[in-house]
Specification:
The protein is an alpha/beta fold. It folds into three domains: about 180 residues, Rossmann fold, CATH 3.40.50; about 170 residues, 3-Layer(aba) Sandwich (Rossmann fold), CATH 3.40.50.12780; about 100 residues, 2-Layer Sandwich (GMP Synthetase, Chain A, domain 3). It is built from 15 helices and 26 strands. The strands form six sheets. It has a nine-stranded mixed beta sheet with strand order 2-1-11-10-12-13-14-15-16, sandwiched between helices. Helix 2 packs antiparallel against helix 3. The longest helix has 17 residues. The N and C termini lie far apart (about 65 Å). Pfam families: AMP-binding, AMP-binding_C. This is Acyl-CoA synthetase. Belongs to the ATP-dependent AMP-binding enzyme family. It comes from Pradoshia eiseniae.
Length: about 525
């Protein structure tokens, strides 16, 4: 088949990306998951069939379709199928608790929800609070709950009608970011945003039809889902989850030449006891993102992947996501830097009045470019604030050196990155302060050998209260997703504050660094 129409062929659309690949390389292997292998033609056929089924169920331009899924071929088919209808996909983090799931499903106005069978118990708890969801489709077999099985869709007759009104500036995905106030924001990413981010990476890394990537990061993350737009008729191998031994086996067996991993994953991979038994010479491009990579780790990656050039991309969901990249030639020399802006992305480092700060001084990094999100869904106030002064405000405090390399100094909103997951302290603090024996609290990131950072709660008890670390962790257990729970608890008589009464988290972090530094 060819692209849908002359009009659609002119636009940078996710669905047309697939259809162009199917036209140019129909029999090339596109996606591999376990024993299942799909060519571009087969992927296109299934995506078009699914798009026709969605249209038959009333899904139209600008509707919302949620998917609460583990990594696998259905995720790919749904990603493309939804995009062909002109609807917006809403990938949902399966690690969230029921209340968090309910908020995202309801806030995004999801009309249909695709869900993995193993995740149904969480949804069952909140389905009555999701009245807009008209149909549930279950991946992974039949259920006794009356929901439609995903594979049954492909046994039905469907007819797909291309959406000629669709263009690159229309929304393609709503990606929910962790909320600094406990409520996540839905970043609306357009077809242009995602397509151009993919092309930026193709240009930056010099990708070609020999591209063969392995995806192990969860596809609900922008860092993983965005890589689906990288291949130039290349091949994508997918694992459901990260397992060091399986990654090494797959690299050798499939001759993988590109992989993106969080530093935590890289560390587990290079520390695997059997790594020396595998042929890893096919790897040409290694990518490490979501958190800083130490020189020691980079040296290990270089030792075990001698042909693999290491790149450190940096960005955020609202930038689709890559904004800067530290390239291989500068990886060691500028190790603590996040590199320079990628092609098609403009940056400035500014003060509170939007004045450029002098080189070497700290300011907020702000962005412009065709990969910048359209808006925060149903949140005009947050959108207006984020686009203040005509640039996107990242919330990251950085400095730029005289060669143009950017260094992240602090996270303006105190974000914690644990194992590649973004965690915002305010959300955890709101849970902790509900405890009747807690007078005040603050949450910070603590150095963690395995995860990079872990959550640490600093607590001031009410007078006469008897609390210990286990009490605090147990209290959070049923109110927060597992990865957000405090792993460490410290009790103080009082929290440090400035003259205005604001808690000085910087002082808490410095004290933590003093402790861990010995």
């Amino acid at each position: 088949m060819t692209t849908s129409s002359l009009h659609l062929s002119r636009s940078l659309l996710i669905g047309e990306h697939l259809r162009r690949s199917a036209h140019k390389a129909p029999d090339k292997e596109a996606y591999i998951f376990g024993e299942k292998r799909l060519t571009y033609r087969q992927t296109e056929e299934r995506a078009i069939h699914l798009a026709g089924w969605l249209q038959g169920r009333g899904v139209d331009y600008d509707d919302k379709v949620g998917f609460l899924l583990f990594n696998g071929i259905p995720f790919i088919e749904i990603f493309y199928g939804v995009s062909l209808t002109g609807a917006l996909g809403v990938p949902i983090n399966f690690r969230l608790n029921s209340d968090e799931l309910q908020y995202i499903i309801a806030n995004s106005d999801c009309k249909i929800l695709f869900i993995d069978r193993k995740l149904l118990p969480s949804f069952e708890l909140i389905k009555d609070r999701c009245p807009l969801v008209q149909e549930i489709v279950v991946i992974g077999g039949e259920t006794e709950l009356g929901y439609l099985s995903y594979e049954r869709i492909y046994g039905e007759e469907t007819e797909y009608v291309p959406i000629d009104r669709l263009n690159g500036d229309d929304g393609a995905l709503i990606m929910y970011t962790s909320g600094t106030t406990g409520l996540p924001k839905g970043a609306v990413l357009t077809h242009n945003n995602l397509y151009i981010n993919g092309m930026n990476q193709v240009m930056t890394a010099g990708l070609n039809p020999d591209f063969k990537q392995l995806i192990v990061a969860p596809l609900f993350h922008i860092a993983a889902i965005s890589t689906l737009l990288y291949p130039i008729q290349g091949t994508t191998v997918i694992h459901q989850q990260f397992d060091s031994e399986q990654v090494l086996k797959t690299i050798e067996k499939e001759r993988i030449n590109f992989i993106f991993l969080a530093p935590t994953m890289w560390q587990m991979l290079v520390d695997h006891e059997n790594i020396g038994n595998y042929d890893l010479t096919s790897m040409k491009r290694c990518s490490a993102g979501s958190a800083p990579c130490s020189i020691a780790l980079k040296e290990k990656i270089a030792r075990y992947f001698p042909n693999g050039e290491l790149r450190d991309p940096f960005g955020q969901t609202e930038m689709s996501p890559v904004a800067t990249c530290l390239n291989p030639e500068d990886s060691i020399r500028k190790n603590t830097s996040v590199g320079k802006p990628v092609v098609n992305v403009e940056v400035r480092v500014v003060d509170e009045q939007m004045n450029d700060v002098p080189l070497g001084e700290i300011g907020e990094i702000v962005y412009r470019g065709p990969t910048l999100m359209k808006e925060y869904y149903k949140n005009p106030e947050a959108t207006e604030e984020a686009f203040r002064g005509g640039w996107f405000h990242s919330g990251d405090l950085v400095r730029m050196d005289d060669e143009g390399f950017i260094y992240v100094v602090d996270r303006k909103k105190d974000m914690i990155i644990s194992g590649g997951e973004n965690i915002y302290p305010a959300e955890i603090e709101q849970v902790l302060i509900k405890h009747p024996d807690i007078k005040e609290c603050a949450v910070i990131g603590a150095a963690d050998e395995k995860w990079g950072e872990s959550v640490k709660a600093v607590i001031v008890k009410r007078e006469g209260a008897e609390l210990n670390e286990e009490d605090i962790i147990r209290f959070c257990q049923n109110q927060l997703s597992s990865y957000k729970k405090p792993r460490q608890v410290q009790f103080l008589d009082a929290l440090p504050r400035n003259a205005a009464g604001k808690i000085l988290k910087k002082a808490l972090r410095q004290a933590e660094e003093g402790v861990t530094g010995g």
